[in-house]
Write a structure and sequence with these properties.
It contains 16 helices and 16 strands. By secondary structure, it is an alpha/beta fold. Strand 8, helix 8 and strand 9 form a beta-alpha-beta unit. Helix 7 runs parallel beside helix 8 (about 175-190).
Length: about 425
Amino acid sequence: MTATRRTILALGASMAMAWPLTALASDPIRIGLLATFEGAFTALGEDGQRGAMAALAEFGAEAGGRPIEVIVASSTGAPDSALLAARRLVEQDGVSILVGPLSGSEGLAVRDYAREHPAVAFINGSSGAQDTTLRNPADNFYRFSTEGVQWMAGLGTYAYEERGYRTVAILGEDYSFPYSQVMGFMLEFCEAGGRVPAKFWVPIGTNDYSSVIAALPEDVDAIFVSLGGADAVNFLTQYQQSGGVAPLLAGSTTVDQTVLSAEGRLRTGLIGVASASPVAGTNDAPEWLEFVAAYRQQPGALAAPSLFAHAYYIGMKAALLAVEETGGDFGDNGENLHAALAGLEFVTPTGPVRLDHNRQAIADIFLTEIVEAEDGGLTSRIVRVTSGVNQTLGMDEAEFLAMGSPSRDNPSCE
């Protein structure tokens, strides 16, 4: 499948899903939904779409007194693919708001494209590369979901102080989002006194991890893994089959619900694994339970919403709340819509969210541990919550920026 364009009313035929929406009247507000429905991250995009549709259903497919028409476009997880899909949504379909994309480097590409269309509001999906908003942000790009560095709040300190780990090897996909996850983990872990003697980077879509597993050092206390979707399932399965014994620490996507729901021999290897994430399966807050119930009304829903469903729900809800605030009148150049988005604060399924000066979310993060759920599956149990996490993990912004962008080699423990 190549990047495609389709209205939400056509999803039954094009996506083998039947989203139950009423036919829309004339003069709707058009919102583009850009997610990944191809390649290693397909399951993530599908769940992101479920989250967005749950938000749309909450509003009855109407906001600001006008009907909402959602047009869906697919990317492959690659920046060029996301850029092509975004261009089609904006320049051919004429969307006023675009929600997406899903993956880290896609977000950087869409952020840069947003500058060409200042009247259009670009609201992040689940793309988690930190630089999308921290460095050279676009005035019309908003991220109401937190990002990869923020998602790691608490894990590095916990690994050192509670688990007693002193040396940790790193394994991640070779692109911007895992770089952000590794930075978030290492900033705390190295500050506490830990060391990272080795890092291993693999391409998205890696199927055979045998050579990587063989190369992992044996003299480390744990391995931090930042892989997502099919990549995570493949590695975790092969690591268990190979008899890997080093304890694992997990990036947010590595033990996301899209992975925990996968069939196979993952159970014994994941129980007890510590991670950190914007969501947690054992959250008993009323807002989370209401979201879970609404999410489960969507076709193909998992046992619990993934972080992708959560992020796309928040992005779509932010769009609809802003439309409500404008009364459906965005202004000649979208100024009313942008003002509404910039000042928006609301309660999400995981707590309150507000934006900083870069239009980036400040929100709560959950330190978690994988446990067996009541239904016999796997879920993430809350260990503790870090409230109001910002992009620099509480550091002075100038000091944080001076450290440079997350990369293969940055940071180090030196």
